[in-house]
User: Fold these one by one.
Assistant:
Number 1:
Amino acid sequence: MSYPYQVKSAEAYKQAWEQSVADPEAFWAEVAAHFIWQQKWDKVLEWNFEAPDVKWFVGGKLNISENCLDRHLEAGGDKAAIIWEPNDPKGKSRTITYKELYEQVCRFANVLKNNGVRKGDRVCIYMGMVPELAIALLACARVGAIHSVIFGGFSAKSIADRLQDAQAQFIITADGAYRGAKEIPLKGVIDDALEQCPFVKKVIVLLHTKTPVSMIKGRDVWWQDELEKAGVDCVAELMDAEDPLFILYTSGSTGKPKGVVHSCGGYMVYATYSFVNVFQYQPGDLFFCTADVGWITGHSYIVYGPLCAGATVLMFEGIPTWPDAGRFWDIVDKYKVNILYTAPTAIRSLMAYGTEPIAGHDLGSLKVLGSVGEPINEEAWHWFDKNIGKGKCPIVDTWWQTETGGIMISNLAGVTPAKPSYATLPLPGIQPMLVDEKGEEIEGNDVSGNLCIKFPWPSIIRTTYGDHERCRTTYFTAYPGTYFTGDGCYRDAEGNYRITGRVDDVLNVSGHRIGTAEVENAINMHEGVVESAVVGYPHDLKGQGIYAYVVYGNTHGDDELTRQDILQTVSRIIGPIAKPDKIQFVKGLPKTRSGKIMRRILRKIAEGDMQNLGDTTTLLDPQVVEDIKEGKV
Ligand code: PRX
């Protein structure tokens, strides 16, 4: 497969970006022409950011699974699509060719149909990192069902909330998942969630870990048994370019996660375009993205982008530090990985083990390294560059979001220059702008502001499921006429962008997005808690840690035990990923006379910066601050 839209020089990048701004419709029509459409679009773009209402490739008909599978069969059917490395290094790896993947997706699509799944139905997927997860996504896409993948680290309650929000009647899961030394009882968690979701009609369960599970007659069926009954041919459903492809829940500044909706046509074009350009993928390269498919990175850069591009992806079931901190490097050498895309939190946690786990590894196959999910600090950047890339692999620092569907700001590997801790330049088609507090655009260079995007790109969020108003108010009202990212940003003298972190109440913990309000809600559900305030603080490994100030009335005299109890509650309500790193019991929270919690002060104290708390005289009770300073944990 060739990529006529791959930009191969800095000059070509500049030209492409300028063309994409001068005539976005012509630019994207040219890119989209390299995909399989059952019916060509009538109009490339219709948009306004007020409603908001964005439509790309209006009237076009396609199925993304045909673009990921069918079109590669003739020339590349025997080529590996997915190479899978199991959690257990002694376990059997699997290689699935495009032809095999096509057959398995078609069969599983028939399983979905046999179990009553129809176009437009919502299907929740809760699985570990096994090839069947990719098969499940693609099979949903093939029958036109809207998938909603939920990360394995979320609790039964979080799953139930998402199932209710999406009114998902179908679930695809597994008996269990392996993650390092742990075994996660996925089906058991689903069973707990389903106690609150009587509308769920079918649960399809993959046999994987052989963990004993309860199977309810009439509702629960085994993946493997259903396959036996399914036919092999499955004509792909004809989808409108603007039909939803998937929902992915993500945290914001309110307590309730929102279901970000992506469409079939625009998402396909942009995920693929960005994959091919940012990583400079060449046919035959092996691409290893270490993200979980439970997050947007896995959707766009394990499944849809690479497979549309006919690439070979490596999918890894386990974690970087098990059985030891050399696991990634074992995998790179074992399969001769060419492109490694990972997260700063993984890099930092491996850094902490020193270079010994790298010794004895060749790593010579690597050509390109990538980072995603949070700002990468310079120390981690240089460590990655020196020890893994051996100074010869370009590192792409890719800034984007669940809502953007694909990479927005990044250098292009080996084509445009990298700058440590900078995402650098916008991809062709992306028009970033910085705005000040008043919403005025900040022109020129060497400036900081809030990052907005002023023109639509094909994979922009279309709506938040079931609540379009929420989409409007969250992203399109802060700075009318633009999409607001929620991130702060600095543009240097050369025009390179450096993301400085969220400016809203969203934390980024180990690359996972967590809303402070969500964590507070969970803590407040704990018996005895009067109120709480959660802020982020710098954490060496996780990027940000979670610091919770808790007003707790009903102590049984054992603070440490109460802390553990509160952690249990947060685990139950949200999931282990949202557990605070620090809990400080306080008598009261610093509030203004109107009752607003002064988070700025709490953030400073959590950071250990006691000197610059600013003006505390407007507080209802300034003494509260002194008490909190004294009790800092
Ligand atoms: O704050 C930015 C940070 O992660 C947020 C998006 O999180 P999520 O939707 O979970 O998607 C993560 C994977 C795309 C952004 O608002 N972020 C993501 N990538 C970077 C980043 N911050 C700095 N540099 C990055 N490369």
Number 2:
Amino acid sequence: MKKHFVLNLIFLVLIFQSLSAQKTPKNVIFLIGDGMGIAQVYAAIVANNNKLNLERCTHAGFSKTYSSNNFTTDSGAGGTALACGVKTKNGMIGMNSDSVAVESILELAAHNKLSTGIVVACAVTHATPASYIAHQINRNMYDEIAADYLKTDIDVFIGGGRKYFEDRNDGKNLTNELKNKNYQVVYNINDVKAIKTGKLVGLLYEDQNPKMPERGTMLPDATMAAIDILDNNSKGFFLMVEGSQIDWACHDNNIKEEIKEMLDFDETIGLALNYAEKTGNTLVIVTADHETGGLTILNGKFGSDDMSASFSTKNHSGVPVPVFAYGPGAENFTGFMENISFKGKLEKLLKLKK
Ligand code: MG
Ligand code: ZN
């Protein structure tokens, strides 16, 4: 009798283990720190007294960021690699290097009836968000990129760039077209937070969002508002969030601004991780499209943003960037990987059909 009980118990433990090993995510929150290399992360860890939310991620790796025609990628080719799983030429959006449009992971998720969203700390037409939704030969074609949002089934997008929808060279007002497609279009963060269901567009700034601290809690607030809406779908969701201005601070070689942008991004990461912890069915990935500034930290004091930081360029560098993961499927994002490997892995984990 006792022996049977023990055997049954072992059997149950084995079944439970194999079930949890096969666990796949229902939702994915993919957070991109534009320009965020390991030194950008560490500067914020030091300034924040040796602690960041992203340290709660259980798995880590490195992503190789070179593009199809350049050792050092830009955010167009870098974003396209993450979104669409193809190396392309610098400056291109959602296309392979032969200028053929390639479906993004967000578009594929939408075709599979998952809810989808984009939340960024820049204009929604900028290169990184554009890579998930648009297919254009050049990242500067903001009017065309805005129009591409209308061609998708995205549920929520929030950021700046109102003028590319409403003050366009072709004279069209895309907001009217968005409303015809049942989007609720709002222009400030309080209105974003008040909407709990349906499709939502938040165009919070004319062009680019202001930097920190002027931007306040826009990025974490908009991220939570998006999750609130997207998780109404029982099939799950894919949400891309970008800490867009880490890159810009590093182009300016300004370490204090880099830290402010990084801490804002990390607060957002913390909310995503809280949601993943609470639900148990959400994969959180944090990575970058490339490193910016060739940053190194030579000396510093924990709890202070006064540090000896050295930038080696005003542009991007070619070094790999860190990848952090948490939640079901996180074990697929360790070691060295190509930036084009994310789409295929997520496609498999979310069981998306082409
Ligand atoms: Mg970007
Ligand atoms: Zn840049």
